[in-house]
Amino acid sequence: MKSNKSITILAIETSCDDTGIAIIKAPAREAGAFDILSNVVASQTEIHAKYGGVYPTLARREHQNNLVPVLEKSLSEAGMLEGIKPNNTKTKKLEKILEREKDLKEKLLPFLEKYSKPKIDAIAVTTGPGLEPCLWVGVNFAKALSFYWGMPVIPVNHIKAHLLINMLQDGKIKELTKKDFPAICLIVSGGHTQLLLMESLGKYKLLGETRDDAAGECFDKTARILGLGYPGGPIVSKMAQGGGNGFNINLPRPMLHTKDYDFSFSGLKTSVLYENLKKSEKIREDERYIKEMCKEIQQSIIDVLIKKTIKAGMDYKAKTIIIGGGVAGNNELRKQFAQKVKKSLPDARLLIPDIKHCSDNGLMVAVSGYFKAKENKFEKWQNLEVDANLRIQ
Ligand code: KG4
Ligand code: ZN
Questions:
Q1: Residues 55, 145: one domain?
Q2: Do the domain assignments include residue 275?
Q3: Residues with beta carbon inside 6 Å of ligand 1?
Q4: Which ligand does the CA of 357 lie closest to?
Q5: Ligand 1 mean position to 381 CA, how many Å?
Q6: pTM for the full predicted model
Q7: 227 CA → ligand 2 middle, Å
Q8: How far is the CA of 292 from the centre of ligand 1 (A)?
Q9: 321-347, pLDDT tens digit by residue?
Q10: Which DSSP string do the residues of 311-355 spell out, in sequence order?
């Protein structure tokens, strides 16, 4: 870490279908105010909605188109966008770095020649896990900026970022201390469902994970079966409100009673499919039926997530339960988790991010990058690699 008192990080997230760039400024060593200078996200959900899921080639193209406008907005909000005279000396090398990202190159070169280098110390970027073509756009973008502006990069693990955003509380970074461990972490997103043990800060051990679909994926796929569009989570949770029980729908709670910490959600999706097939077209289109189905899908997922997390919490005598990922934005899940932790793990504290920080965004990458910056874990842009299957350990 440099000797200056604060560090400014620009963080990039492109692992799936959200293009996010955040800029933060925080004390380089001791804890203190963590200024979020900007946190801009361009979502692609409308584009993917017609496919009922994320289409990687399309997502890659959208990231290429969105990154420069998102960067411009992010720098502008942070008060860092200043014009300069064109300077073409580095253009040739930049063209090489971006040779595989043609659309991005066409947007980025004019941008870099137009604006001066912002007061940023490092660039954090998600390097995995995620969709490989999408990750590469973000990583090549980070490489280009790092080379052009002459600043180091910080590779960030997307899963850790979803969990570590929980350390940002009331505008400050509150690191876990000895008394907060062991912690049980539940990551629930569109691509992952994992239970992890954190014995000390940054030391993770995988306890269990889904054997097939992730929880978010299950929301997305069942929403598709019900003709509700993409992404499924927010729509299913909205429809679930006010769902009754007039149709007597009983979906399974897969692996609820197994002794391990694994999950399985693909059977739930199949049950929804069969349940739907058994019904007449008239019923399938009845909003009361759809609402009831959504309520039952949501509750089935919540029941399994809570049961396994609480079991892990008890088995390991957890002092903290940390939840992260897009599904953590589900209101019912948040409410039921709070009640259950209070009741069954009265000595444990539940950490769950603000709803607006649950789905993919640049800020979570910035927080994660900040922890690495404090430990001087900077890299040269030449060493950045993508790992679409990056594990947490
Ligand atoms: O973390 P995230 O933004 O992207 C990945 O890393 O995958 O998570 C996206 C997932 C999607 O499957 C989406 O349907 C789900 O999070 N999701 C929700 C809610 N909001 C987003 N699931 C349940 N309830 C929600 N309110
Ligand atoms: Zn995510």
A1: yes
A2: yes
A3: 16, 189-191, 216-217, 219-220, 231-234, 237, 325-327, 329-330, 359-360
A4: 1
A5: 30
A6: 0.95
A7: 24
A8: 21
A9: 999 999 999 999 999 999 999 999 999
A10: HHHHHTT-SEEEEESGGGG-HHHHHHHHHHHHHH-TTPEEE---G
Is residue 88 included in any domain, yes or no?
A: yes
23-27: long-range pairs with CB below 8 Å, 24+ = 23/74, 23/75, 23/77, 23/78, 23/80, 23/120, 23/366, 24/363, 24/366, 24/367, 24/370, 26/173, 26/370
139 lies in the same domain as 197? no
pLDDT of 3 > 60? The answer is: no
Tell me which residue range forms the domain holding 298.
182-318
pLDDT tens digits, one per residue of 209-228: 999 999 999 999 999 999 99
Would 89 be classed as within a structural domain?
yes
Residues 14 and 112 in one domain: yes
Distance 89 CA to ligand 1 centre (A): 43
- Residue 341 belongs to a domain: no
Predicted local distance difference test score (pLDDT) of residue 2: 47
How many domains does the chain fold into? 2
| H-run or E-run covering 219 | helix 215-225
Note the pLDDT tens digit of each residue in 265-314.
999 999 999 999 999 999 999 999 999 999 999 999 999 999 999 999 99
Q: Residue 93: which CATH number?
A: 3.30.420.40
**C-alpha to C-alpha distance for 332 and 338, rounded to whole angstroms:** 10
Chain position carrying tokens 């000396």: 89
pLDDT at residue number 392: 82
Q: Which residue, by CA, sits nearest to atom 8 of ligand 1? A: 326
Measured from the CA of 219, which atom of ligand 1 is nearest?
14
Q: Report pLDDT digits (tens) over 162-176.
A: 999 999 998 889 889
Ligand 1: nearest atom to the Cα of 191: 7
CA of 66 from ligand 1 middle (Å) equals: 21
Give the per-residue pLDDT at 83.
83
- How many Å apart are CA 367 and CA 358, to the nearest integer? 13
* pLDDT confidence of residue 393: 65
Average pLDDT over residues 186-210: 95
Same-domain status, 14 and 116: yes
Residue whose CA is at the smallest distance from ligand 1 atom 22: 233
How does strand 168-169 pair with strand 122-128?
unpaired
